[in-house]
């Protein structure tokens, strides 16, 4: 845990660069439920493997341009010529396995639609009953049983370059779980979780007040 000079409590990683701080304060852990948004995070988490998240954030706009705004149908149409062009694009991470995985995953996402559940709905179906409630950075888990199940399920549906750690990073990024420190000003920012890790009551239920 670290305190930035504005006295707000953040995870230690978020205090190392203004770009990370902005991402933490405005985006990380907020619910993302649309196909394009989930596919973008899935793709970027795969590219982040072995690198820092700051490296990815600095190239995010270049990634969006290179991968057609992360629209699944457009990325699924990428051919070998487009892959070679991406391998020459200095604005992104030029890793052939990761680039090809993005195309493979876009096609797998299309197939998920045909099976009756889109990518976003499928990923969110692995939301656990409880979320962690870490008091220190050391208590923040790197994976969970639900993440391992999600990774296995994605692989069964043809996705590649996915594993339990990456799946959990995706789940934390899009609000499926809340791993903000319990003392952080962002704890509970998604509106889905309470400070103790239990689910927040849905709007309009007996647990809500006017």
Automatic annotation (TrEMBL):
A Pfam family (short name) is Adenine_glyco
Q: Which residues form a coiled coil?
A: none
Superkingdom as given in the UniProt entry: Bacteria
- What InterPro entries does the record tag this protein with? Adenine_glyco, DNA-3mA_glycosylase, DNA_glycosylase
The protein here is known as: DNA-3-methyladenine glycosylase I
Q: What species does this protein belong to?
A: Leucobacter rhizosphaerae
